[in-house]
Design goal:
seven-stranded mixed β-sheet; 28% helix; alpha/beta
């Protein structure tokens, strides 16, 4: 089969179309013939040599796919999945390929009414947002979420879920166009971080109270500013690091606000935890997709053979929503 591999770390042009061995499903796994694969920031980090696949996963990138089940391994619960089922799945790696194998517990049906190609952009963002914002972060109806990078795949899902579940969303974005895009998804306020102070904007929107949950994808000096914008009892969920400068935290302010800063990743969690996250996504998020209250937000779809251009599009930061590779 064909896969997009990374012969050596580097810029986007190191991505190479290659022939690799077809995978066979191990006990508890299914095999999916891939229709499309979603791009994520982790793929760029992996290509640059900073974020290798975990042990046992393919060495090439790809954390989510959509496709058709074409083989089922031993020990998969009878009747749970059948050959021919249209599905999407969360992967530990290897999604840039024509075939993938994955634990049956990390597979989801393509939601009713969702295009099978677009479904490839759902598993990673839905799992990340549900797990961090609503499960670990505990965002409740009536509370306020501050999401950085609101026009990204994760940001666009966070805004929509907050709105659908009765919370308020404030987003930061890197241009007036992106801020307007966030408002179109349901953000009640959107801040162009290049020209405006998001701390002041959050405090103004909340009448000085602050945000209850912050979804941070930046790190560095943003953490101190997140804390300044946080409500008493608030939670900062740090899920990515774009600014690798060590964060300085005013511990007195953290204690005064009785606040929490929690760093998490999804890919590195034990399989049982990831399976539990996917089960919660199916229970809580999939009905919202079927009802049309939440939708996949797709920026662009590139042919499988144009993975280099897809990565360059993502690195440009010009995209609004998810970037996908159409595999078949």
């Amino acid at each position: 089969m064909r896969a997009i591999v990374v012969p050596q770390p580097g810029e986007a042009d190191v991505l190479t179309l290659a022939e690799v061995a077809e995978p066979l499903p191990a006990p508890g796994e299914v095999r999916i013939r891939v229709i499309a694969a979603g791009l994520n920031g982790a793929d760029l980090s992996q290509r640059r040599g900073y974020y290798p696949s975990p042990p046992g996963a393919p060495e090439w990138p790809g954390l989510e796919v959509s496709g058709v089940i074409d083989a089922i391994g031993d020990a998969v619960e009878p009747g749970r999945w059948r050959e021919g089922d249209l599905v999407c799945a969360l992967l530990p790696g290897g999604g840039y390929a024509e075939l993938v194998t994955v634990d049956a517990g990390l597979v989801l049906p393509v939601p009713e009414g969702v295009d099978p190609v677009e479904a490839a952009g759902l598993p990673e963002v839905a799992a990340t947002v549900w797990s961090n914002v609503f499960d670990l972060g505990g965002l409740a109806a009536g509370e306020t979420l501050l999401v950085h990078g609101g026009s990204s795949g994760i940001g666009s899902m966070a805004i929509q879920l907050a709105r659908a579940l009765g919370s308020h969303a404030i987003a930061t974005a890197g241009s007036p166009e992106k801020a307007a895009f966030c408002r179109s998804l349901g953000a009640e306020a959107a801040v162009d971080y290049r020209t405006d102070d998001f701390v002041a904007a959050v405090l103004a929107f909340t009448d000085g109270r602050g945000a209850d949950v912050v979804l941070d994808i930046v790190g560095g000096d943003y953490i101190a500013r997140d804390l300044a914008a946080l409500a008493t009892g608030g939670r900062i969920m740090s899920i990515a690091v774009r600014d690798r400068t060590p964060a300085a935290v005013d511990m007195g302010l953290l204690m005064h606000k009785r606040a929490r800063i929690q760093g998490t990743t999804l890919r590195a969690r034990p399989l049982a935890e990831r399976v539990a996250v996917i089960a919660a996504v199916r229970e809580h998020v999939w009905p919202l997709l079927a009802a049309g209250e939440v939708r996949p937000v797709i920026d662009s779809v590139f042919p499988f053979t144009d993975a280099v251009q897809a990565h360059r599009r993502m690195e440009s930061s010009a995209h609004l929503g998810k970037i996908l590779l159409r595999v078949s």
